[in-house]
Amino acid sequence: MTTTNVHSGTPQGAHRWMVPLAVVTAGAMIALWFPFSALWQQQHEIAQASAALAAVRGEQQALNAQSHQVASTRAQRDLARADYQLVSPGQSLIQVLPGRAANGVWTLRDDPGYQPLARPDTVPATLTHRVVAPAGRGFFERLVRTLEFWR
What we know:
Distance between the termini: 112 Å
Helix content: 40-55%
Largest sheet: none
Strand content: under 5%
Radius of gyration: 45 Å
Shape: elongated
């Protein structure tokens, strides 16, 4: 036989199943509504940002080392001479360009300065452009037409 509660009139063990049901329901709500995928995605983005930050720090260290290398006047002069072909005042820069040799041996015939000049009559007609002013126009009209380079 069951005992009844004097105050409510219900059996004494009737509401004991509600506490475990509430705990299971709360656990299910947390599990279903908790944003695990968003947390996983954010963790992945944090890892990528950390890797990018480490790469930038490595580049910064390399650039700092390079700036210390070129801090001296001698290094700056060598860099200006090698990369930008700059010379000190009173010096002259002479560049010797390699010639085109058919057999690997350079001769004076291979120097482009010794090649004959092109004859004007052998130049293709598409490269020449001759403007002939029609007869009957005045000087100022021809002058304005010549200066209209934006046409």
